[in-house]
Write a structure and sequence with these properties.
Blueprint: E1 15-18, H1 21-51, H2 55-79, E2 87-90, H3 92-100, E3 108-114, H4 122-133, E4 142-148, H5 153-176, H6 183-188, H7 197-219, H8 230-236, E5 251-256, E6 271-276, H9 287-302, E7 307-312, E8 316-317, H10 322-330, H11 333-336, E9 339-343, E10 348-349, H12 362-373, E11 385-388, H13 417-426, H14 450-461, E12 464-467, E13 475-478, H15 483-501, H16 507-515, H17 517-527, H18 533-548, H19 559-582, H20 587-601, H21 604-616, H22 633-640, H23 654-677, H24 682-686, H25 688-700, H26 702-710, H27 719-733, H28 735-747
Parallel strand pairs: 3-4, 3-7, 4-6, 9-12, 10-13
Antiparallel strand pairs: 1-2, 5-6, 7-11, 8-13, 9-11
Helix pairs in contact: 1-2, 1-19, 2-17, 2-18, 3-10, 4-5, 5-7, 9-13, 14-16, 15-21, 16-17, 18-23, 18-25, 23-25, 23-27
The structure holds uridine-5'-diphosphate-glucose and manganese (II) ion.
Main location: membrane
Organism: Cucumis melo var. makuwa
Protein name: Cellulose synthase-like protein G3 isoform X1
């Protein structure tokens, strides 16, 4: 990497890894015992199906069998994360020292995607941009590319304002060795790193810039007085009357060029380029994947850096040394030949104390990723990822040729006509027609979870990835602060996951063949997680409805079986809890995480299934619904008080409300029976299992009851949802009645 002469190798070692033999051995042993218990359970299931005489009890047994089968499948897949967990450490100080000695570091292109100035406030985009521009790294080697799928003049305006501020901000950060290089976060923090005369001045400058940008945004257009210079005017003139986010020409604006633009100390600044690719209703733009692919090409014409960092617009740098950290792996000669990318866990700012919507996703971003790191490496999370450019162009041994390939050498300056013409050409909406973009090259199309799918393809091609999980979060982003936002995001992932699971390159068949059984199972776990909705729905409704009818679904008086169920339940929950705590999380967060698992099962996974089915049948297709990053005051307040935010009418809330009412009702009826007949009645005791489940679900549903009955704020559960749920519940409970009435006829078939 770097120049044509081979640079001297960096000092080694730059990183180390560690795998706990105790944990690995324990996980394997526990898996063996648990597997035996699962087999015993299935043995029992088969027996009870064979023994059943009535239709209703056969149906119940069958439902439980299917539910337990899916739970067992997910359990098996989940074990792959536990076989060889690996933790890593890197030594960025060594590289930082080299930076002082003019070491030839590789150039880095940073890609930041934004798409909707209403949901993604330009000031927050600007803060992310400033935070990466100020990285501890040779400045001339950093280029920041912004992809604006919203094609918003406001976003470009905010960037030009930020570029002016950067002339002061970047040298300020470097001179004072600031750690929080996102100005908003720096000025807002109470435990401020330091405060001097410069700080006051810079703060004033920032506030002025912010006010200017926000005024323009409020007005909704960039007024004449804000445009200086003929060149800027030409750019902003491209926003003509016929310009819409869905249909407009390419706009590329080099806001800063490292060679010419200097900061107030006379040092270079990073390149800063705004790109809004051409859009036309006649061509599918493939959402974020399309945007990233356009940036891959545009950046190739201008800088073609061998390392690429992809970020979502809300993700800002929280540690100026992150580039050095990533390079500890990227520069390692032993890893280099097949290292596709280095992934940092997603971390979030402003998550409530107990993380009510489980937005931290500890399991996905940390626990499971540590597990995958011992195999071929973590999947791609869409943000906080350092790619080697080469990984986008075919497997390590099979380069897909392309005119602007990774070894293309840029000769013309960024602002030259030749470069800009070529950049416009590759950002055109029809450029990808009849090419391998999206299938063999770049970010892959075909799944709404483009990140997950792309990494799956890369692993199958022979790349490996690395999880870099430093103590200090490398990036911070926003997590959804309303239940609907959280569930909509998860629904998109559910559809995206199923698209991979049921594609030609199915994770189980094709996956296991290409990347081995364990790695294939990891991907299978993610691509089929929406299947969880089946057992969750069965266990949320079936035992409870049966109890109301006085039918026991678990066998009577079999102590061994009680023991088996107890072990399976507490074993799984216990292991989950221990792993959570060991990753530095708290009991409160774990409790909410397991609650969200249930809520997901009866809402977004279910809806995801339906949307996936409709999409596969060609009936309708849903796009990439962007998650809102706006922090509305009242909402934020309720979120921080850890109140669930319902407030709107959506079918997604109905099944969970039904489950909440049913489980509570079932518990009441169960206790009434016990009081009436006493504990001696054997039948009631055998229903203890059902009572236990109802009790557990009821406990989990507390926020729903609260939102249904006790709250009066904007975020409460709409009355219409409560009524719709009661109505549907009554319908559901009358099904057994119909079965018992008509089953003699059914038996005829
Ligand atoms: O047509 C689009 C749609 C989205 N985006 C950008 O994609 C990013 C992610 O969108 P967001 O709404 O924040 O999605 P999340 O659900 O928060 O994102 C997670 O899930 C996505 C896949 O579903 C990944 O792409 C993200 O990196 C990952 O953080 C944002 O920067 C958007 O601006 C585009 O550029 N073009
Ligand atoms: Mn996001």
């Amino acid at each position: 990497m770097g120049g044509s002469t081979t640079p001297p190798p960096p000092p080694s070692p730059l990183h180390s890894s560690y795998s706990s033999h105790f944990i690995t051995a324990f996980n394997r042993l526990f898996a063996a015992v648990y597997a035996a218990a699962i087999l015993a359970l299935f043995y029992h299931h088969i027996l009870s199906i064979l023994r059943n005489s009535s239709i209703s009890s056969s149906l119940i047994s069958l439902a439980l069998l299917v539910a337990d089968f899916i739970l067992a499948f997910m359990w098996v897949a989940g074990q792959s994360f536990r076989m060889i967990p690996v933790r890593r450490r890197e030594f960025p100080e060594k590289l930082k020292r080299l930076a002082e000695e003019d070491f030839d570091f590789p150039a880095v292109d940073v890609f930041i995607c934004t798409t909707d100035p209403d949901k993604e406030p330009p000031m927050s985009v600007v803060n992310s941009v400033l935070s990466v521009m100020a990285y501890d790294y040779p400045v001339g080697k950093i280029s920041v590319y912004i992809s604006d799928d919203g094609g918003s003049a406001l976003t470009l305006f905010a960037l030009t304002a930020a570029a002016k501020f950067a002339r002061h901000w970047v040298p300020f950060c470097k001179k004072n060795d600031v750690v929080k290089r996102n100005p908003e976060a720096f000025f807002a923090s109470t435990d401020n790193e330091f405060w001097n005369f410069d700080t006051e001045k810079i703060k004033e400058m920032y506030e002025k810039m912010k006010k200017k940008v926000e005024d323009v945004i409020e007005k909704g257009e960039v007024g004449d007085k804000f445009i200086d210079g003929e060149e800027d005017r030409l750019t902003f003139n491209k926003w003509t009357k016929s310009f819409t986010p869905q249909s407009h020409p390419t706009i590329i604006k080099v806001v800063l060029e490292s060679k010419n633009d200097k900061d107030m100390m006379g040092h270079s600044l990073p390149n800063l380029v705004y790109v809004s690719r051409e859009k036309s209703k006649a061509f599918h733009h493939h959402f974020k994947s399309g945007a990233l692919n356009a940036l891959l090409r545009v950046s190739a014409t201008m800088t073609n850096a061998p390392i690429i960092l992809t970020l979502d617009c809300d993700m800002y740098s929280n540690d100026p040394q992150t580039l050095f950290r990533a390079l500890c792996y990227a520069l390692d000669p032993e890893l280099k030949s097949n290292l596709g990318y280095i992934q940092f866990p997603q971390c979030f700012k402003g998550v409530s104390i107990n993380d009510i919507y489980a937005s931290e996703m500890k399991r996905t971003f940390e626990i499971n990723s540590i597990g995958m790191d011992g195999l071929l490496g973590p999947d791609y999370f869409g943000t906080g990822t350092f790619f080697t450019r080469r990984a986008f162009f075919g497997g390590p041994l099979s380069l897909e040729s392309f005119e602007l390939s990774p070894d293309y050498v840029v000769c013309n300056p960024i602002r030259s006509k030749q470069t800009l013409d070529l950049a416009h050409e590759v950002a055109a909406c029809d450029y990808e027609n009849n090419t391998k973009w999206g299938s063999k090259v770049g970010i892959r199309y075909g799944s709404l979870a483009e990140d997950f799918y792309t990494s799956y393809c890369m692993h199958c091609e022979g790349w490996r990835s690395i999880l870099c999980n430093p103590n200090r979060a490398a990036f911070y982003g926003n997590a959804p602060i309303s239940l609907l936002d959280a569930l909509s995001q998860l629904k998109r992932w559910a559809v995206g996951a199923l698209e991979v699971g049921f594609s030609k390159s199915c994770t189980i068949t094709y996956g296991m063949k290409s990347i081995g059984v364990l790695m294939g199972l990891c991907y299978a776990y993610y691509s089929f997680w929406p299947l969880w909705s089946i057992p969750i729905i069965v266990y949320a409704f079936l035992p409870q409805s049966a109890l109301i009818y006085g039918i026991s679904v678990f066998p009577k008086g079999d102590e061994l079986l009680v023991l088996l169920y107890t072990f399976l339940f507490f074993g799984a929950y216990g292991q989950d809890l221990v792993e959570f705590l060991m990753s530095g999380s708290t009991f409160g967060k774990w409790w909410n995480d397991q609650r969200m698992w249930m809520i997901k099962g009866v809402s977004c996974s279910l809806c995801g299934f339906i949307e996936f089915a409709l999409k596969s049948l060609g009936i309708s297709s849903y796009g990439f619904e962007v998650t809102s990053k706006v922090m509305e005051e009242e909402r934020t307040k309720r979120y921080n008080e850890e109140k669930f935010e319902f407030g709107v009418w959506t079918p997604m809330f109905i099944p969970m409300t039904m489950a909440a009412i049913l489980n509570f009702g079932c518990l009441v009826i169960g206790f009434m029976r016990i009081f009436k007949d006493g504990w001696n009645n054997l039948d009631e005791i055998s229903m203890f299992g059902q009572m236990f489940i109802a009790g557990f679900v009821t406990l989990n549903c507390w926020p729903i009851y609260e939102a249904m009955v006790f709250r009066n704020d904007e975020g409460k559960l709409p009355l219409s949802i409560t009524f719709a749920s009661i109505f549907l519940l009554l319908g559901l409970l009358s099904i057994p009645f119909f079965i018992s009435t008509y089953s003699p006829y059914l038996l005829l078939f």
